[in-house]
Every structure is written in structure tokens, then in C-alpha cells.
Amino acid sequence: MPDLTKQFLKRVDDARDDLIALTQDLIRIPTVNPPGNDYLAICEYLDRRLKSRGFETELVRAKDTPGDSDKYPRWNIVARRTGAHGGDCVHFNSHIDVVEVGHGWTHDPFGAALVDGRIYGRGSCDMKGGLATSIIAAEAFLDTWPDFSGAVEISGTADEETGGFGGVAYLCEQGFFSPEKVQHVIIPEPFKDRVCLGHRGVYWAEIETHGRIAHGSMPFLGDCAVRHMGAVLAEMESSLFPALARKRTDMPVIPEGARQSTMNINSLHGGQAEPEPGFTGLPSPCVPDRAKMIVDRRFLLEENIEDVEAEIVAVLEKVKSEREGFRYDMREIHRVIPSMTARDAPVVTTVSAAIQSVMGKEPQYVVSPGTYDQKHIDRIGRMKNCIAYGPGILDLAHQPDEYIEVGDMLDSAKVMGLALAEILTGETPLKT
User: Fold this and answer.
1) Distance between CA atoms of 254 and 370, rounded to whole angstroms?
2) Buried b (16+ CB within 10 A) or exposed e, 156-176
3) Boundaries of CATH 3.40.630.10 in the chain?
4) Distances in whole angstroms, Cα of residue 74 to Cα of each of 38, 50, 175, 378, 390
């Protein structure tokens, strides 16, 4: 092992206490989204930290994006450290928002308690532990190889949990992730010893069936929109869901059940609105004249988005042809095209070699069943050399008593730093 590589690995091990403290500080800033609390506070914290290590920083507000307001502004930070010579830029992108706390915690969700080598807290695994790890990795790399080429970038971005439109999508639109500026992207989502190449696609739609209101004692004088929606559900069960189960992919999606097309009935409501809390009266006797359903369709690289939409329309049209008085509207809410980085892409091969060097095993190559910010880097930023890799166990994301293991973070920091050395120096620490 080269002397500089040994020095780097020791620097990471010596930074253990700093890594713990940094992770705890980030968890203790409760950046819950929605609504988007404390984005500026965490960006200012990161600004101070990264400026102290020689990074040039920029705080960027994604004005007029979904959720942005003066009360809850969508702040992001992008930090860059440029090397002594020209070369590629490696960018570590982490989201700063966390989901709601939920119930069932035995630790303070924002206390960041260190217990038996684990740091507990909302966002510890998804993904403030990954953000802290990328900072420690970059700092140890810069201290070991100060005469590097190219640039190292670290970003903390908003709203990944709600689509990323006030974060990475906005930054991509502003050119921060253009292939002329950034050549390699690592998103430290919790995949432990696996390399995530991409994700399935998404198609969300709202379906509304229409009826005619009437007195509930004389339903024959009305037309029940809920019954019409029931016919839609029945047709989906008999034809669409079985057809989706037959669609299989070569994408290495995890878990195994997600290697087929899937659709979830995300919500369903018909008739009168739910009463306000505290109301104890009875509903009025009315035939519902409307019913709404939101469907969440996840699709594969082998599928076409137009066909995905057409399959749902075909169900509705079949019901319409068979059911008297059936009327509907369908409105697209959200779409994401599948993304998958090639297995022989430079960032994939480099990070994979680093995992093998640090952990002594070949990484598993996987694809996420849901989406993350790679979708924007790929489709808007036109940057194809992107993966998700970072410390932590994916299954802990959004769970009560979420935690990150310190040992995982130290291993990942070594992987990230050795990948930087492989790309940005003339040395080959992964090939000796």
C-alpha cells in the first residue's frame, strides 16, 4: 500500500470523533419537510464548516419552486475546492431535508444520541450521515493530496423527499450539474456496500369519476360516482394488475418484488368531504356525484411512458364502453423517466474498486425501486456519470429509531476518499 494511501486511511480513522460530532450537529437541525424547516440554518452551518477548509461556497435559494415561500424558503448550498491543476470535478450531493418523525421512537428524534456505535435520529441514515461522511472524506483527501487536479464539490440540497424541485432540479436548471462543470456525481444515499446505478420510473395520475347527486333514500334518481369508481377498481384488478405482474426487467432492482411493474392506489375518496375534527353529527344522505383516486405507477427501463399512460386510459375506456352513464377525467400529476448509469461508467468502476479495496468484497450493483435526485442530474443536468453510494442501511430510512453506524461511515469515507484520489491525482491507490 502506498504511503499516501496509508496516511489517508489513518486520517479518516483519526477523524472519528469529528465525524460523530458533525453528524450529530446536522441531525440536531430539524429540517423536516414538509414544510421545509431550518433549511437556511443547516446551509449556514455547512457554509461555516466548508469555508474553514478552503471551499468556495454559494447559497442558492430556489425561488418560486414548489413549497418555496418567505416563511419556508428553499435554500441550497454548493461548495467547491479547486485543485492546483486542471481536471475533472467530482461532486458529492446530499439532501438536507428529512421526513416527519412519526411514532414509535425510543430515542429523541433530534437528540442524535450515540449508543453502542450508532447515532440515532431522524435523517441519520437518510442522509445526514452520508453528508457528514462526504465532508470528512473530502477533508482527509485534501490533507493527503493537496496538489490534486480538478475540483471537489459538496452540495446540500432541499426537498429530495418531496421531489427535489426546490433542490437538485433547480440547480440543474441553473447549470450547476452540467457535464461541462461536473464530470462525476456520488449521491451518499444509504446503500452500505452496494452501488446504486439508478431507479425505476414514476407515473402519477388522478382519476375522477362523475355522477349525479340525489337523496340517499332515492338513489335511483341519482348516479353514484363511487360505484363507477368501484367498476374502475374491478377492471384494474382483473386486467391491469395481472398484466403489470408479467412485465419483468433486466434492471437489478431491489427488492426482488420491484423487478416487475407495479401500481399502488395511493388514495381514494368519494362523496362528501371528511368532517372537521370534533364534529359529532351524521352525514347528510346524498348520492355521491364525484369520486377521486390517485394511482402511483412505477415502471421499468424497458417501458415507454406513453404506453404506461395508455394502459390506464384503456381501463377507463373499457369501463366506459360497458357501463351506462360512466364519465371520467384523468389528470397527470407527476412523471419521472427511469434512469440507470452504465456499469462500466467511470464513477461506477472507480467506486466499486474502492469498495473492494476497503471492504474486501465485490459490491452488488442495484437499482432503487423508488426515485431520488439522480433523475434530475440525468434528465435536466444531462450528466450520465452518476451513482448513489453511501453509509447506512436503506431499510432504516423513514423508520422510528432510525440510526447510522459510525463504522459504516468510516468505511464509506475511506471509499469516497480513495475514489477521489483515483480520479483527481496521478497516483493509483486502488491498483496496487
Assistant:
1) 10
2) bbbbbbbbbbbbbbbbbeeeb
3) 3-199+338-424
4) 10, 20, 17, 22, 24
The one-letter amino acid code at 288 reads P
Of residues 195, 191, 124, 110, the one with CA closest to residue 398: 124
Mean pLDDT to the nearest integer, 422-431:
82
Contact status, residue 376 vs residue 172, Cβ threshold 8 Å: yes
293-310 pLDDT per residue, tens: 999 999 999 999 999 999
Q: Measured between alpha carbons, how far is residue 271 from residues 253, 279, 381, 404 in Å?
A: 39, 17, 43, 45
Using CA atoms, how far apart are residues 142 and 152, in angstroms rounded to an integer?
Answer: 9
Q: Which CATH architecture has domain 201-272+281-336?
A: 2-Layer Sandwich (3.30)
Confidence of residue 430 (pLDDT cuts 50, 70, 90): confident
Angle at 16 between CA 13 and CA 18, to 5 degrees: 130
CA 381 to CA 386: how far, in whole Å? 11
Q: What are the residues whose beta carbons fall under 8 Å from the beta carbon of 11, sequence distance 6 or more?
A: 140, 143, 144
On the question of pLDDT at 426 being above 80, the answer is no
Nearest in space to 42 (alpha carbons), one of 157, 197, 182, 188: 157
Asked if CATH classification 3.40.50.1000 holds for the domain at 3-199+338-424, the reply, yes or no, is no
pLDDT of residue 432: 46
Residues of the chain with CATH 3.30.70.360: 201-272+281-336
The distance of Cα 80 from the centroid of its chain, to the nearest Å, equals 23
- The closest of 199, 172, 170, 181 to 379, measured between CA atoms, is 172
Amino acid present at 368: S
Smallest CA-to-CA distance from 374 within 96, 123, 153, 94 is with 94
pLDDT at residue 119 is higher than 70: yes
Per-residue pLDDT of 374-420, as tens digits, reads 999 999 999 999 999 999 999 999 999 999 999 999 999 999 999 99
Other Cβ atoms closer than 10 A to 313: 13
